Automatic annotation (TrEMBL):
Superkingdom assignment: Bacteria
Species annotation: Amycolatopsis rhizosphaerae
Protein name (database record): Lactate utilization protein C
Domain LUD residues, every copy: 95-196
A Pfam family hit: LUD_dom
Amino acid sequence: MSAREEILAAVRASLRQADRSEATVPRGYRSAPPLPDPVGLFAERVRDYRAALSRCAESELPAAIRAALGPARRILVPEGFPVPVEGSVPGTGETAAELDTFDAVVTVAALGIATTGTIVLDHGSGQGRRALSLVPDLHVCVLREDQIVSGVPDAVAALDPGRPQTWISGPSATSDIELDRVEGVHGPRTLHVIVVAPA
């Protein structure tokens, strides 16, 4: 008998002796107590990732976007973005090479996660396809306060598993064996999140 056959025989014997009744699996990890200040924690964690974060009222959003864009001039905005962005071009299926000619992209997010400082795009209205948020050097992402959930289990429960998702925690970065950090390798070099307070 080969080692493989011996191992499989042992597995089969164990399975024959196993209790087939349903075991109760604790699922407490799927929920967490509400956070006292999820928006504040989200802001702190986003900054921990070396991303920029600003907060504004709904009426101040156009000015906040313009400020976040800084000197960027070629700006891409996906279809369905909720406010006009001065000087922007609508995303219409550009190739990666064409996307690389843009200085920035402005999107909304599906939600944000307070405990990890993560924004999640499910590529619905105002978010565009995945490449839009990965190729331009600056990604400005708009998120409403009521879209911030406490933790990852809350995010997973809120998201549609049938939709594509991009989870972003800070600007794209990597480091080599000597821990020299390089930003902008696999995505935008700069991420700026704008958190919008309810009207």
